[in-house]
Design goal:
Blueprint lengths: L1 H22 L3 H4 L2 H17 L12 E5 L7 H9 L4 E5 L8 H12 L3 H6 L12 E5 L16 E4 L4 E5 L16 E4 L5 H4 L5 E4 L4 E8 L3 E6 L3 E4 L4 E2 L12 H13 L3 E4 L5 H16 L15 E6 L2 H5 L1 H7 L2 E5 H7 L5 H15 L3 E4 L14 H13 L3 E4 L1 H4 L4 H21 L17 H20 L4 E5 L4 H8 L6 E5 L2 H5 L7 E5 L13 H14 L8 E9 L8 E9 L3
Parallel strand pairs: 1-2, 1-16, 2-3, 3-12, 5-6, 12-13, 13-14, 14-15, 15-16, 17-18, 17-20, 18-19
Antiparallel strand pairs: 4-10, 5-9, 7-8, 7-11, 8-9, 20-21
Helix pairs in contact: 1-3, 1-16, 3-16, 8-9, 9-11, 11-13, 14-16, 17-18
Length: 584
């Protein structure tokens, strides 16, 4: 037992050393090998002695789980929460106009007992059961095959067979006598003849069948099948390297977005974002939905607009990534369609590019699709999948996502348990050898508040560095809008950031940021009021941190907050960082 433990410690130390050297090109010129070794040993020691860290929130990197038939019961949702789910994804790709099922799934998440249920007994305020976020994933403007010839369920294509791809209904045609054709295939994309040219490729059903265009006419294109296989109706179609003439939002998307606003969803994942204009269209439509809502009668405010997470799934989206990132609240690297739209050999490089740029801008980035895909069928992940998840975390992903694994797989709970263990291991490595993240404070900033944002970034960066230098247990951010906590998280802290909020929706909207653990502030005092003594709010936040087991007597804690100036002061407000040692 001792020898196995020693071997594991040595292996972890080696990984941390390698990670530090690999992620900091000039590190060896500035530090000695002895310093690298000490950094690795110190991080390993911190991880080994952190025995009272709460298990439910034990990952700095966030985990998203998709709900579906395998996880749509109270018991399953409670198990997902207990094993580390931070965000629940509702997939609207196959949902109809009846919202009974997504509403039921959302209620399961909201009603599941979480950490705040523990606080309710001793609190003077009404506490939510938990602060897990809801992400609504829209279908987006997809291209799909229509009914097949002869209304057949499946049609076989042979290698070299001729296929006419058309916008016309072919269901009344006779079915071809053999896979050699000739075939006619209906598609719901009206601009197919304008978009494609001779030599273009048409990929069917996630690329399982590839067609090459040989001739273009007014409403159709003639293709040759490059490989054999079956095709069914309503299957996805990809047109690699083509600029598509598709709207940012379909009628279905608009209905789903309005529902998202009505029920108070926290995030919207906008599918097939190709330009910055697409993002602006989604945000504008959400703003209109919020503006049209009747004012609340109980004196509360209208719900906040769901934050927009742009899904990058095409070459056009990759090419326009910088402008898309500026307009987005976050990014999802949706590798499924992306791996069909661009050569699969380029997917990993595109993923690394997007993760790095999101880190530099301080915006959350999700890596998604097939992360533990084999666990839909098997109780253990493949070694390649473990490496994929760990590498995404080491590269800087704020969140990793489970799709079919938890929605329709045989092992949903085993999947999140495996994901959590991989993420925990990667978190220890990255936090043990991390350097301060280089955030571009001007990227996406409101130019009218640029000076204020620069001040807040300076304080946030100092808090992260001080927590590391002083071996602080955690950082406490007291925030009304979530901004203070987001800025702290953008500098990639190595300890949890407990973000104490006065509004549950503000708190849930922080769930995608790596390292942030949102909490409800148990006080009626308004942090933005000049009459509020911030010291009393800091004390209450520290009491909650101790109550939940995040800290104990003797621990160092960093607090970051904003205080309003008094009438006699020479400033409107100030950003503060304080270092404290908790007493018994």
């Amino acid at each position: 037992s001792f020898s196995l433990s020693l071997l594991d410690n040595c292996f972890s130390t080696m990984l941390r050393s390698l990670y530090t050297a690999a992620t900091t090109p000039s590190f060896l010129q500035r530090q000695s090998k002895h310093a690298i070794y000490n950094t690795a040993i110190r991080s390993l020691s911190n991880a080994a002695t952190d025995l009272y860290s709460p298990g439910e929130e034990s990952t700095m990197t966030k985990i998203i789980c998709t709900l579906g038939p395998s996880s749509d019961t109270p018991e399953a949702v409670a198990a997902l929460l207990a094993n580390g789910m931070h965000v629940a994804r509702l997939n609207f790709s196959h949902a109809g106009a009846d919202y009974t099922y997504p509403e039921a799934c959302m209620a399961l998440v909201r009603n599941a007992p979480g950490r705040h249920a523990e606080l309710a007994a001793g609190s003077k305020m009404t506490m939510p059961n938990n602060l897990r976020a809801i992400l609504v994933d829209t279908k987006g403007p997809e291209i799909r095959t229509g009914p097949l010839q002869g209304n057949a369920e499946v049609q076989e294509f042979g290698v070299g067979s001729i296929v006419e791809v058309t916008i016309e209904d072919v269901s009344n045609d006779d079915a071809p006598a053999s896979p050699e054709g000739p075939h006619r295939l209906s598609m719901d994309y009206q601009s197919i003849a304008k978009t494609l040219h001779v030599g273009s490729q048409v990929l069917l059903d996630d690329g399982l069948i590839a067609l090459e265009v040989t001739h273009v006419e007014n409403n159709s294109v003639t293709c040759v099948a490059l490989n054999a296989g079956p095709i069914k109706k309503n299957k996805g179609v990809n047109l690699p390297n083509a600029e598509l003439d598709l709207p940012a939002l379909t009628d279905k998307d608009k209905r789903d977005l309005k529902w998202s606003c009505d029920v108070g969803a926290d995030y919207v994942a906008a599918s097939f974002i190709r330009t910055a204009g697409n993002v602006r269209s989604v945000k504008a439509y959400l703003d209109r939905c919020i503006a049209e809502m009747p004012p609340p009668t109980n004196g509360s405010h209208l719900p906040l607009r769901p934050l927009v997470i742009s899904k990058i799934e095409s070459k056009e989206g990759v090419d326009n990534f910088d402008e898309i990132l500026r307009e987005s609240d976050g990014i999802m690297v949706a590798r499924g369609d992306l791996g069909v739209e661009i050569p699969f050999r380029k997917v990993f490089a595109a993923q690394k590019m997007m993760v790095q740029k999101c880190n530099e801008s301080g915006k959350p980035v999700i890596v998604a699709t097939q992360m533990l895909d084999s666990m839909q069928r098997n109780p253990r992940p493949t070694r390649a999948e473990v490496t994929d998840v760990g590498t995404a975390v080491l590269d800087g992903a704020d969140a990793v996502m489970l799709s079919g694994e938890t929605a329709a797989g045989t092992y949903p709970i085993e999947s999140i348990q495996a994901m959590r263990m991989i993420v925990q291991e990667a978190d220890q490595i990255i936090d043990g050898a991390a350097s301060l993240n280089r955030v571009n404070v001007n990227e996406g900033a409101d130019m009218s508040n640029i000076q204020e944002d620069q001040c807040l970034h300076a304080v946030a960066k100092s808090s992260v560095k001080s927590a590391r230098d002083l071996d602080a247990k955690l950082i406490i951010a007291i925030t009304s809008s979530g901004k203070v906590a987001r800025f702290v998280a953008s500098h990639r802290p190595t300890v949890p950031v407990l973000a104490f909020c006065t509004d549950a929706q503000v708190a849930r909207r922080l769930q995608l940021h790596r390292g942030i653990l949102p909490m409800m502030l148990q006080s009626d005092l308004d942090p933005l009021s000049a009459k509020t003594r911030m010291a009393s709010l800091r004390a209450e936040a520290m009491r909650t941190a101790v109550e939940l087991g995040f800290a104990r007597a003797g621990d160092r804690v960093i607090t970051v907050d904003r205080t309003e100036g008094q009438p006699q002061d020479m400033h409107h407000h100030s950003y503060n960082m304080k270092m404290s040692t908790l007493r018994a």
